[in-house]
Specification:
The chain has helices at 2-29, 32-36, 53-60, 63-66, 79-88, 98-107, 154-157, 159-165, 183-189, 199-208, 237-242, 244-263, 265-275, 281-296, 299-304, 311-324, 333-336, 345-348; strands at 38-43, 69-74, 93-97, 114-119, 126-131, 146-149, 174-177, 194-198, 216-220, 231-236. The chain has 354 residues and is of the alpha/beta class. Strands 2-1-3-10-4 form a 5-stranded mixed sheet, with helices on both faces. The chain has a 5-stranded mixed sheet with strand order 7-6-8-5-9.
């Protein structure tokens, strides 16, 4: 019996070695990238709409996967929420208003940090959209008028900067704090004289409600003396330090998709429709084109490439945000944005219009 047991032990050992060799061989056949994919949970600032196309394209065409990344993209409910979730560690990266990053860093100096790593909107999309039939053609005509917006809206919060740049007192208008779903409805019904909102979002929402562009005076903040930046890809400082190659790979993949989005916006929106089959593809294509034309394709990005910042302008923007938001501290430009993960400038130059 002892001899039989010994024989069994020897056979087991041989089987174990054989199975181990098979497993090792199977693992060797798996692509290295599949074994090393870095998970990234990515939080958008808003719903799946036209401007989210390059993110979804990079995911669905496998550009992130080619960089060794396993990226999950979730819709959002505002920039502040996206930034808080990235800072908390619930998400590694996200997309949100760079001005909200300034605010978060100022109000949470001891919290885990977040930084902008790729500025997509070279100017804030914030705008005043006013009814022409109320006699509003210039900023001065807003005096004494009623303006509606949610309390968190960038245009609402940065109103003192817009007012100062255009010779108005900050209290020259009457503000109405409203739910974001009611903002355009109130203007279309004539319950208020003007609203603030992202130009490419509010304009299309107003058109849906029967108030077309020809009936509106649209005053985009960057065109009226407010040099704020807009939305940027953000990353948790802890994640970026631990996985710099993952952040670099994410930006390469996104930048690749952005160029394709410029070349064919309608094709890019198809990736949004794959994620949300209920969208109006024609409307979202127009929303995407408006966003690209108004805040992505600018004289600065044409010369210097998309993604980066002008340091002097960034410092000016931070100081302006700190003043109008009445922040307790002023974060440094290095805290707010880092260019260390960006692709080379030549890769970030925008393609010529088709």
């Amino acid at each position: 019996m002892a001899h039989v047991a010994g024989t069994f032990d020897t056979t087991s050992q041989r089987f174990g070695r054989y199975a181990g060799a098979l497993l090792a061989g199977a693992v060797a056949l798996v692509p290295a990238a599949a074994l090393a994919d870095t998970p990234i949970r990515f939080q958008l600032d808003w719903r799946f709409e036209g401007p989210s196309a390059p993110f979804l394209m990079a995911q669905q065409k496998g550009y992130f996967a080619e960089e060794g990344l396993d990226v999950q993209i979730d819709s959002g409910s505002g920039s502040a929420g996206a930034i808080n979730r990235v800072a908390s560690g619930a998400y590694e990266m996200g997309f949100g208003d760079l001005n909200a990053v300034v605010e978060f860093l100022a109000e949470n100096p001891d919290a885990p940090g977040v930084s902008g790593v790729y500025v997509l909107y070279d100017g804030t999309p914030a705008a005043v959209l006013a009814r022409k039939d109320r006699g509003i053609e210039t900023p001065a005509d807003l005096a004494g008028k009623r303006i509606a917006a949610p309390a968190f809206d960038t245009g609402y919060r940065a109103w003192p900067a817009f007012a100062a740049a255009n010779g108005l007192a900050a209290d020259a208008v009457e503000w109405q704090n409203v739910d974001p779903t009611l903002r355009e409805t109130l203007l279309a019904r004539g319950d208020v004289d003007a609203i603030t909102g992202f130009s490419f979002t509010s304009l299309l929402n107003l058109e849906e409600r029967g108030l077309g562009e020809d009936a509106l005076t649209i005053m985009a903040f960057p065109e009226y003396g407010v040099p704020l930046y807009g939305n940027a890809i953000i990353a948790s400082d802890a994640f970026a330090e631990a996985h710099p190659e993952a952040v670099e790979g994410f930006l390469r993949a996104f930048n690749r998709a952005l160029k394709e989005t410029f070349a064919d916006p309608a094709a890019a929106v198809a990736f949004v429709a794959e994620r949300d089959g209920l969208i109006d593809t024609a409307m979202e294509t127009r929303r995407l084109e408006l966003a690209l034309d108004s805040v992505v394709d600018t004289p600065y990005t044409r010369e210097h490439g998309v993604g980066g910042v002008d340091e002097a302008r960034l410092e000016q923007a931070i100081a302006l945000v700190a003043e109008v938001f009445e922040l307790p501290t002023v974060p440094t430009a290095e805290q707010v944005f880092t260019a260390r993960f960006l692709p080379p400038v030549e890769e970030r130059l925008l393609p010529e219009a088709p």
